[in-house]
Write a structure and sequence with these properties.
With 526 residues, the protein is of the alpha/beta class. The protein folds into 3 domains: 12-236 and 322-338, 3-Layer(aba) Sandwich (Rossmann fold); 343-413, Luciferase, Domain 3 (Luciferase, domain 3), CATH 2.30.38.10; 415-525, GMP Synthetase, Chain A, domain 3 (2-Layer Sandwich). The strands form 5 sheets. The chain has a 9-stranded mixed beta sheet, sandwiched between helices. Strands 6-5-3-4-7-8 form a 6-stranded mixed beta sheet, sandwiched between helices. Strands 16, 17, 18, 19 and 20 form a 5-stranded antiparallel beta sheet that branches. The protein is globular and about 70 Å long. 48% of the residues are buried.
């Protein structure tokens, strides 16, 4: 029987319609380098329409790619709509890429035009002559130019399967790889984020996405917030803990999103300054397993709940969530959002048992999961697997899945430490070390060992008041005292540092850590 439901495109046009027609008086707050800028959804929508006309006037047409090298500001948010609504594609470029990586992704994506932050002019000077793209600064002068244009009166209907945004992986292994998000995938993912069993974003909330807008569209949180009429607070360029605190207090932020490293630094700051962070109710974190100590302190001292989410560039960010109130269970990455299914396979491609013990590589499929990289058939083939006639994405995450479907990421496949033929989870080791109160951050890696194949070594940042007072033996002794690991899991060496290298998206950069540890070990042997 044929459906009698009308054919309706799930595109960004619908979200924009809601912005203009339903929530025109809601507020957007944007922290800039020199001030706090505020305007209504109505003012935002008018600027979007004018910006679209400016871009069309620059010769951009259907299917063309327009880049942005920008922070979490209202100017960047305007590009989130102004470009896709004219059936072009917005390419959000990582501001922390090296200029050579910026040039690479601009060329590969074939950007015709690139908008950039003025404080990144140094990088832009390095790449201008190396690409065919034209560049426009996001500045007061450009604001005035945008305002000089008439608004686009009518946006044409767009096929929901057309590309809207392209985002590149952080390039920790080889060149960055592009994933194109369609209008349909953005709409469905944004809608799927809203239920109480996921993020609980509603018109009553004040949402602050600290996750960079250049990274997986800030997990689509800006789109979801505008979809429901929430007040949106954008933390601007290089936000520090003090900036986040001020925005939370002044603007009444109730929900905030960011990687664990963001909240570790933030918590350290507010504890030192003895600050109150109400009205904040929820933080949504992902990209790495949040330390139990972080979640416990937020809950016990500030009544702030942690939602643990999992996702990746290839899955348009958030794909699983864990809302448990049990902190011992909250280390799991949770269950899939509606529209997603997953399982895990062993090294022979066989599905593992869902018993919370067997380990395999997570494979996933769903409404916003990629089926390959943009213009990269070789890498696309590597990440896809077919099982029972269905196409699945290989995530590279090693997991176990319990009887209720909750996944626990044991480690990235490439980060597992194999010692004496047995596996050591660097993630579990890191979180155990970070549960020692004097420790602020920790990272664990495997180094080559003639006898055992690999042995774990940890890099540790101590809290300021403990520097010079805590020794290697103290941390090893603590790991033994918690009686969680066999003796051979204990790191052979603890390296104390002032900071741990991180990727452009705030994750621990184990590639760089490995090189630094090699240097340190080499120096200690000479």
């Amino acid at each position: 029987m044929k459906s009698t439901i009308m054919d309706y495109n799930l595109s960004l046009n619908n979200i924009f319609w809601r912005v203009e027609k339903l929530y025109y008086d809601r507020e957007i707050v944007s922290r800039l380098s020199d001030k706090i800028f505020k305007y209504t959804y109505k003012d935002f929508a008018l600027r979007v329409r004018k910006l679209s006309n400016l871009v069309l006037n620059k010769g951009i047409r259907r299917g063309d790619v327009v880049g942005s090298i920008a922070w979490n500001t209202h100017r960047h948010l305007e590009l989130y709509f102004a470009i896709p609504l004219i059936n072009s594609v917005l390419h959000t470029i990582n501001v922390r890429f090296h200029p050579s990586e910026m040039s690479y992704v601009i060329d590969v994506a074939n950007d015709k035009l690139v908008f950039y932050e003025e404080d990144l002019s140094g990088s832009i000077r390095e790449i201008k002559g190396k690409t065919k793209a034209s560049f426009i600064p996001l500045s007061k002068e450009t604001d005035e130019e945008i305002d000089s244009f008439n608004p686009v009166e009518k946006y044409e209907e767009i096929d929901e399967r057309e590309g809207a945004v392209i985002c590149y992986t952080s390039g920790t292994t080889g060149h960055p790889k592009g994933v194109v998000y369609s209008h349909r995938s953005i709409f469905i993912h944004s809608l799927a984020l809203l239920p109480k069993d996921v993020t609980g974003i509603s018109s009553n909330e004040v949402v602050m996405p600290v996750v960079p807008m250049f990274h997986i569209s800030s997990w689509d949180i800006p789109y979801a917030s505008l979809m429901t009429g929430a007040k949106l607070v954008l933390p601007g360029p290089r936000p520090q803990p003090e900036d986040l605190f001020n925005l939370i207090k002044r603007e009444g932020v109730t929900i905030a999103t960011g990687a664990p490293t963001v909240w570790i630094s933030f918590l350290d700051y507010i504890l030192k300054e003895r600050l109150d962070i109400s009205p904040l109710k929820v933080i949504i974190t992902g990209g790495a397993e949040p330390p139990k100590g972080l979640m416990k302190t937020l809950k016990d001292k500030f009544s702030v709940r942690t939602i643990h989410a999992w996702g990746m560039t290839e899955t348009e960010a958030i794909t699983t969530v864990n809302l448990s109130e049990d902190l011992d269970f909250l280390n799991k990455q949770g269950i899939p959002m509606p529209g997603i299914e997953y399982t895990a396979i062993d090294e022979n491609g066989r599905e593992i048992r869902w018993n919370g013990k067997d380990m395999g590589e997570l494979i996933i499929r769903g409404a916003w999961v990629t089926d390959g990289y943009y213009n990269n058939p070789e890498k696309s083939k590597e990440i896809m697997v077919e099982m029972e006639g269905k196409k699945w994405l290989r995530t590279g995450d090693m997991v176990n899945i319990d009887e209720n479907g909750f996944i626990k990421v044991v480690d990235r496949k490439k980060d597992l430490i194999k010692s004496g033929g047995e596996w050591i989870s660097s993630v579990d080791l890191e979180n155990a070390i970070m549960s020692f109160p004097p420790v602020l951050e920790a990272v664990a890696i495997g180094v080559k060992d003639e006898k055992w194949g690999e042995r774990p070594i940890a890099m540790v940042v101590l809290r300021e008041e403990f520097k010079g007072k805590v020794k290697e033996e103290d941390i090893k002794g603590f790991l033994m005292s918690i009686n969680k690991f066999p003796k051979w899991w204990i790191p052979d060496k603890i390296v104390f540092v002032d900071s741990i290298p991180k990727t452009s998206t705030g994750k621990l950069d184990k590639k760089v850590v490995r090189e630094k540890v090699k240097e340190i070990l080499k120096q200690s042997q000479t």
